Structure formats: C-alpha cells, structure tokens
Amino acid sequence: MLELSRATRGLMYGSFLLLVGAGIATATLGGWWHSGWLWTSIGLLTLLFVAAFPLAVPYFRAIRAELAKAPVDQAKLDALLSSPRGLWLAWIETVGLLLIIYLMVLKPF
C-alpha cells in the first residue's frame, strides 16, 4: 500500500492542477472572484495541501524506513502503525474537504 501511495503521486499532482485550473475557469465564468466563500475555499485548500506534508511525509517515511530494514523491528513498526497520526491526518483532510464542499455548494457569503 505504501508503494501504491508513492506510485500515485504524479496522478495526485496532475489532478490537483486540473482542480485548480477548473476552479479558476469556473470562478471567472461565474464572476465569483469577489465572493468570500471562494477565497475561504481557496485558503482552506491551500492550508490542507500545505498541512498534509508535515503530517504525512515524516510518518510514512518512518514506516517505509522501518519496513526496509532486515530484520524489521516489529515493536517499533507496531508503535508507528498504532500512532494516531494517520487517523488525525485522515480526519483533518476529510473535515477540511467537507468544509470546502459546504462552501462551494451553499455559497453562504
């Protein structure tokens, strides 16, 4: 699963660029550049993207490094895998994306 995650990074960055490009086009066509919900959504998306790196990269790098060792220190691997960091990352990103969807669908301000 870790290698699958690493292998899909290019697709993730390409999808992110497509999302940003489509967002710029839609905001321009809709005349929404003056809307607070749009700028809040852009800020949240940027925050989520930037926050993912210090939360995820060291965590998954440590797991990869431990799995690359021969023999694997099972106690250390278990400690890494039972860390709440992965769950925190999933919750932060999910709640952030749900907030963005809320802002974009309901356009509250």
Proportion in helices: over 70%
What is the residue-mean pLDDT, rounded to a whole number? 92
- Give helix and strand order, one letter per element, not per position: HHHHH
Cα(first) to Cα(last) distance is 41 Å
C-alpha geometry: elongated
The tally of helices reads 5
Biggest sheet features: none
Low-pLDDT ranges:
none
Approximately how much beta-strand content do the residues carry?
A: under 5%
How many extended strands?
Answer: 0
Task: Determine Rg (CA atoms, Å).
Answer: 18 Å
Number of domains: 1
Task: Write a structural description.
It is a single chain. With 109 residues, the protein is mainly α. It has one domain. The protein is 83% helix and 0% strand. The protein contains five helices and no strands. It has helices at 2-7, 9-30, 36-68, 74-81, 85-106.
